[in-house]
Amino acid sequence: MSDLLGIGSSGLRAYRAALAAVSENIVNADNRDYSRRRVDVVEAMAVARPSPLYAANRDFQGADVGGIRRSGDMLADQGLRFALAASGTANARAAWLEQAEVALGDDAAGVGQRLGVFFASAQELAGAPDSAALRATMLSALDDVARAFNAAGNRLTEVQAQLGDALAVSAGDASRHLATLAGLNRDLLGTIDGSAAQAQMFDQRDAALFKLSAILPVTVSLGTKGDVALTLADGTSLVNGVNAAAVTIGGSMDAPALLVNGTAAALPPEGALAGQAGSAAALSAHRVSLDNVAGNFAAALNGWQAMGTAAGGSAGAPLLSGSDATSLTLVATDPAAIAAARGGVANGNLTALAALRDPAGAEAGWQSLVNVLALQGESSRIAQDAADTQVGHARVRRDAASAVDLDAEAAEMVRLQQAYEAAARVIQVARETINAILAIF
């Protein structure tokens, strides 16, 4: 009867652990970083007997917990890491190109609109070149153009500064995830295989890998205890045992560079860092285009001014100073300084101003800049939608292998509850039998 009591109690212990695992699954059903658990109930090992006459095959030892099995699929995990890396690139690029579109917006106060107003005011002045009011209007419109260039340049500078900060933050986040993984490597080396602590650390490891992959995709190698070794595509080590590298960003905003422990390394083509670095290069190119439009406009306008004669009969002096968007400034303060006349004709120079609106002019250059940025922004948003869809599909594949199904857990709980009650019934039968035997004496 003592064997019967031991068998029953072993069943209670085993199924209590199995029920606890199901309960853990249920309460973590909405936890995206959690993988469902299963307790392996195995036959208890037979105890060796000193007597050679003992028949081991008649000795039943009951049940035992063989370990906690964590559901998962390594290929599905890898697929999700790849999808997150692509999504990190697309989301970063779409976000920063959208910021650039806002900075170079062509609204009523934008460069394009202000240029149109300026040329329209010059055309109106050509109809009455001696009008002081119209001259003042044209000079004010030109000041608005300069201020619009200033505002666009300053906004773009601010976006570039924010992007530089975002690159530093992403690098810091990557370093933090690497340190977390190195710490988990240390803790995993001391865990018991098949334990609840090990399963929990595996969840933390996978969650950190997913977050890291969205920023900086890496090559993952698993050790015997589930520890990880991480390298970049060029072989640069990021995590080796309990040692984690520090990731920073160097170089310039034109070409940000990845530094690992202070040494240059190849930046992977995907991940948030890659998307931000690519956006930085794109914003720098747009900044060059903006400065070229501003500088060329100033040079062309001052060249046009030099071809004419001001109201007092003097040669036209420069109206603008500066060679880029942020430095463009109206230097003329007297409306009479506008060189309206040319060749003895009162409005001869004003009528020639329309030549600055040719395909090589400021308006065409600005429109080209806006169009290129709009096309890049639209392309990035399409890529973002596609990448997010791929992440969704990858999560579905991973969830099929590791996520909690509440219906399945409810059915499993009913089965385990019946098994637990049956084990308790074994103990009850053993006690009743023992009491019956004792009652004989």
Looking at this protein, list some descriptive labels.
441 residues; 60% helix; 4-stranded antiparallel beta sheet; 3-stranded antiparallel beta sheet; alpha+beta; rod-shaped
Tell me the Rg in angstroms: 37 Å
Q: Tally the beta strands.
A: 11
Terminal residue distance: 17 Å
Main sheet attributes: strand count, strand direction, barrel closure: 4 strands, antiparallel
| Element pattern in H and E | HEEHHHHEEEEEEEHEEHHH
Which structural class fits the helix and strand makeup?
alpha+beta
The share of residues in extended strands comes to 5-15%
The share of residues in helices is 55-70%
- Unreliable segments of 5+ consecutive residues: none
Arrangement of strands in the largest sheet: 3-4-5-6
Mean pLDDT over all positions: 92
How many separate helices?
Answer: 9
Large-scale geometry: rod-shaped
Q: Your description of this structure?
A:
The chain is α+β, with helices and mostly antiparallel strands. The chain has nine helices and eleven strands. The chain has helices at 2-27, 74-103, 111-127, 132-188, 196-215, 272-306, 348-352, 362-402, 406-440, and strands at 37-43, 63-70, 219-222, 228-231, 237-240, 243-244, 247-251, 256-260, 263-265, 320-321, 329-330. A four-stranded antiparallel beta sheet has the order 3-4-5-6, with helices on one face. A hairpin with a 2-residue loop joins strand 8 (256-260) and strand 9 (263-265). The longest helix is centred in the middle third of the chain and has 57 residues, at 132-188. The two termini are 17 Å apart. The relative contact order is 0.16.
